[in-house]
Amino acid sequence: MATIALLGNPNTGKTTLFNELTDKYAYVGNWTGVTVEKKMGQLTDSETMVVDLPGIYSLNPLTKDEAVATDYLLTGHPDLILNVTNAGQLKRNLLLTIELLESGIPVVLALNMLDDLQQSPFLFDLPTLAEWLHCQVKGTNARSKQGIAALHANLLQSLDHSAVSPALTLPYPEPVAHAIDATTQALQATHPELPRDFTRWLIIQYMAQNQTIRDYAQRQQLTALTHQTAAFDQQNFEDHIFQTRLTFIEQTLQAARRPNPAMQPNQLTQRIDRWVTHPLLGIPIFIGIFWLMFKLSFDWIGTPASNLLNAWLSGPVTATANHLLSSWGTLPFLQSLLVNGILDGVGGVLTFVPQIFVLFACISALEDSGYMARAALVTDRLMQMIGLNGKSFIPLIIGFGCNVTGVMATRTIEQPKERLVTILISPFMSCSARLPIYSLFVAAFFSRHQAVIVLSLYFLGIVVALVMAKIYQLAFRLKRSSTFMIELPKYHVPRLDIILQGTWDKGKGFVKKAGTVIFAGTVLIWLLSNLSWHGPVTDIDQSLAATLGKLLLPLFIPLGVRSWEVVSALLTGVMAKEIITASMIVLFHLTGRTALVATFSGLFTPLSAYCLLVFILLYIPCFSTLATIKAETGSTKWMVYSAGSSFVIAYGLAVLIYQVGSLFL
Amino acid sequence: MQLFSQDIMVHQLTTHSFQQLDPLTVRRLERLGIRPGSQLTVIRQYPFHGPVILQVDQQQIALRYPVFQALIGGA
Amino acid sequence: MSIIVSILVLIAILIGAACQIRRIFQFSKHGGCAACEYNCATKQRLKALEKQRR
């Protein structure tokens, strides 16, 4: 089976191109660091696999996600490389292209984002580029699907004619060229199995101080290379190689550059940035955009749609289900499980789908527009104050969708300690799974200010994360980092299909979970509420759920919780936060949300309700997040620490708010 | 020591030396197209030593003040 | 008859839920990573296609 590797600088539209070329959808964003793990898809109408790799500037990795790409080239043996470049920034993009061309693996160069190029005073002559670079060059604009069909055909053609031109050989200065030849001979003598082009490439990468290649040479015991490390470094080969590449790029571009007769300058980015990155207005605009998002999700669109869904589900659907099950003569025990358990519990959680999808549509639109890089910029001052890299902001924002992807997105951070801190604070970001429970409580207690209350919880999550980051910075003696560099991509008018796809991509997990984790959690809580140590019970107060809840209830009284049902629901929430809502519906034995909202008013005051939400926001991350923390830190210790510390913080803060609030309210 | 030249009125700078920066930062700057001799245009500078937005080769990049300061030769 | 069907359905639901709960505890296999699960699925699909061709 043939494999095509998709490689290119960050934010050149690789993933958009991947989606156009394959028949599967992957997560896209108009900002750096969206892809942190390789993603495989099937080239449309073929049996070829396309591998989408994280964006890299060079094969010499600085971060963990960049290492994924270099490792793949060493071990994945792709048959063809599709190098995606931003046509408007070819000078910088070609540095990577040269490294790829030197590898001897056939390369097809895609000049993507042609629309950006149209706005500049120059165009490039593709045949000249192809001639200089010894590879196929195609112009594309993945966003408008321009050139995709031709590229698709070209890829298949290139795979069929695998005997393509030899690797690119640059005229390196004498000492470097001599050393490359001599070392190639020496390596070929000891390792005849290595292809000649690959050997040459390995040597050049080694000379250029590529740490992944140096580790590889150590592992493979390539002594002809490893013994010369000092000699290479002393003669400053890295610098020579870099300068030669740069000169070659400038010559190539000079030869291929043509004046652009139809230049269409686009002032959109400058016009928007005049306000959005304004030193004083930047932060208020950032908060305003988020406020608007929650207003849309909770007040304007999400909640009304959700109410309609709920009325339909708890009314006609439940009545019909009850009627049908009774007429079939179903056992009462099963009927109760199906209707009071699964239908009410799982259905109850599903009624929150509108809010979640509206919120995700907003986030997807922001990501596709290019705003997120600006958000990272205007909040950087804050990140700097707490000693974090500006890049930490991106995983945190991704965490709003799901903490698992948030934790994974920390791979773009160079320093291991900074990365660990960001992993540890990521679960404080309020993920979509917590939305249903917020929605339920704000409807009951804060019906007039729903958006503001939810926004306050989101910001509280951010504040706790930042405070914890500061504490970790002091505890781990992290040096103050000044390495924040972020590209500000050009704004795009968000494309509807990308927003819809992005919304579905983020939200489908929630719908899927309804059939898996939430279903399981609902069955479990229903069983616990209908069984005691001695068998089935009719009085829920005698059930296992009640026993467990009552046992732990004293612990929760300081934060204003008065009913054991809430405590039991919190216990099941560790499996997945959505289960808290389902559990409450099952435990309070009510049909759907409307009745539950009415019951709450007798059990909570607005203050205690808010404290409970604070607790739910911050307490133990769900199992998937804990597992990801373990996988990403490579240690069970940090997983256990994350669970323990977040519980203590959640408890402490919720008690504090309740106790202090009680003095005034 | 004058390490940069500044055009009159417009915020155009040419970087001359990266000696004050650590190798990792230098490499990251190189990747973004900023190397000794690069032409930079300052688009926006935040007050109180906040981040700076630069334009290099038609690409806008934001970086923190200490790095910017080192680029233009200040301590 | 309906009693037997009811019991069978009940057992099926309980087994389904138990499997799901087991999966939650096994999440560490993929680290909860959607990309890994997605990659596994693509590989399997391509393998199946290749088999079919042979």
Q: Which features does this protein show?
A:
heterotrimer, A: 665 residues, alpha/beta, Rossmann fold, 3 domains, six-stranded mixed beta sheet, two-stranded antiparallel ribbon, 33 helices, elongated, B: 75 residues, alpha+beta, SH3 type barrels, five-stranded antiparallel beta sheet, 2 helices, globular, disordered N terminus
Low-confidence spans of chain A: none
Most extensive interface, residues per chain? A-C, 41 and 33 residues
Mass-distribution shape of chain C? elongated
Ends of chain A: how far apart?
Answer: 69 Å
Strand tally of chain A, please? Answer: 11
- Strand runs of chain C, count: 0
Distance between the termini of chain C: 48 Å
Integer count of domains of chain A:
3
Helix proportion of residues of chain A, in percent? 55-70%
Oligomerization state: heterotrimer
Mean pLDDT of chain C, to the nearest integer, reads 74
Point out poorly predicted stretches of chain C: none
Q: What's the main sheet of chain C like?
A: none
Residue share in β-strands of chain C? under 5%
**Range of helix content of chain C:** over 70%
Put simply, the count of helices of chain C is 2
How are the strands of the biggest sheet of chain A laid out side by side?
2-3-1-4-5-7
Approximate strand percentage of chain A: 5-15%
User: How would you spell out the order of helices and strands of chain C?
Assistant: HH
Query: Helical element count of chain A?
Result: 33
Pfam family, one (chain B): FeoA
Keywords (chain B): Iron
Domain Ferrous iron transporter FeoA-like (chain B): 8-75
GO molecular function (chain B): transition metal ion binding
Give an overview of the whole structure:
The complex is a heterotrimer of chains A (665), B (75) and C (54). By secondary structure, chain A is α/β, with parallel strands linked by helices. Chain A has 3 domains: 3-160, Rossmann fold, CATH 3.40.50.300; 174-259; 283-486 and 495-664, no CATH class. In chain A, 63% of the residues lie in helices and 7% in strands. In chain A, the strands form 3 sheets. A 6-stranded mixed beta sheet of chain A has the order 2-3-1-4-5-7, with helices on both faces. A two-stranded antiparallel sheet of chain A has the order 6-8. Chain A has a two-stranded antiparallel sheet with strand order 10-11. The N and C termini of chain A lie far apart (69 Å). Chain B has 2 helices and 5 strands; from the N terminus they run ββαβββα. Chain B has helices at residues 23-31, 65-71, and strands at residues 5-6, 12-14, 39-45, 52-56, 59-63. Chain B has a 5-stranded antiparallel beta sheet with strand order 1-2-3-4-5. In chain B, a hairpin with a 6-residue loop joins strand 3 and strand 4. In chain B, 33% of the residues are buried. In chain C, 81% of the residues lie in helices and 0% in strands. Chain C has one domain (2-53). Chains in contact: A-B, A-C. The interface between A and C is large, with 41 and 33 residues. Strand 9 (485-488) of chain A pairs antiparallel with strand 5 of chain B. Chain A: Mg(2+) 2 binds at residue 19. Chain A: The chain crosses the membrane at residues 275-294, 342-366, 386-408, 420-446, 452-472, 514-531, 607-626, 638-660. Chain A: GTP binds at residues 8-15, 33-37, 52-55, 112-115. Chain A: GO terms for molecular function: ferrous iron transmembrane transporter activity; GTP binding; metal ion binding.
